[in-house]
Design brief:
By secondary structure, this protein is of the alpha/beta class. It has 9 helices and 8 strands. A 5-stranded parallel sheet has the order 5-4-6-7-8. The longest helix has 14 residues, at about 60-70. The chain is globular and about 55 Å long. The N and C termini lie far apart (about 50 Å). Mean pLDDT is about 85; it is low at about 1-10 and about 75-80.
């Protein structure tokens, strides 16, 4: 954090206002690397000391704790959750998310659908619970799909999550962004028959 002259603060921090990444990980019940990912993506607000140590604002930690508590399910749902595969769907168009929900929900597959409206929200949900499969658009406001996938590839905790891209962007443009060559990319409008085959294969349901 900088002072009024723009220099990095190198003083003892107030533990009621700031905490270290390890302290934040303990409070939030996640790994140290997950906290680092949230800091890098802006989910948690932090600054660096002159020695290069991150100090995270307690306000942003408390805000995330509240959001995580609100996301906790009831006891009955929690007990049934382990039998279901979690599929995170990311698209900035509410109509598309609703279409996914209606179509995939009618497949009668053992999966739980979770929705996010952009890459930033998706990273937050991934940090809360690692999905088995990610279905994502690429062109989104804020953090787009390219940046989100890049963040996941650089994190060994999440780089093995199954990914299916569904995008209206030209294949040549997508190829120029250096995404993995074996990444499955489906066009829009969504070919749901092909998508179902890919989902069943990714979740090992066939």
């Amino acid at each position: 954090m900088t002072n009024s002259s723009g220099n990095i603060r190198d003083v003892a921090y107030d533990a009621t206002e700031f905490c270290s990444t390890r302290e934040a990980a303990a409070i939030l019940g996640v790994s140290h690397r997950t906290v680092q990912l949230w800091v890098e993506s802006g989910v948690l607000q932090a600054w660096k000391t002159a020695g290069g140590h991150r100090r995270i604002t307690m306000k942003s930690v408390e805000k995330l704790v509240l959001e995580r508590r609100q996301a906790v399910k009831g006891p009955a749902e929690t007990a049934a959750a382990p039998a279901l595969k979690q599929v995170l769907i990311v698209d900035d168009e509410p109509a598309m998310l609703r279409l996914y929900e209606l179509e995939l929900g009618g497949w009668n597959l053992p999966m739980e659908l979770v929705k996010a409206h952009d890459g930033f929200e998706a990273l937050l949900k991934i940090g809360q619970r690692r999905p088995d499969l990610l279905i994502t658009d690429l062109h989104m406001p804020g953090m787009d799909g390219f940046r989100m996938l890049d963040s996941l590839r650089n994190n060994p905790e999440y780089d093995t999550i199954g990914v299916i891209v569904v995008s209206g962007i030209e294949p040549s443009t997508i190829a120029a962004k250096s995404l993995p060559s074996d990444l499955l990319v489906l066009p829009k409008p969504v070919p749901f028959a092909r998508l179902r085959e890919a989902v069943e294969a990714a979740l090992q349901l066939t």
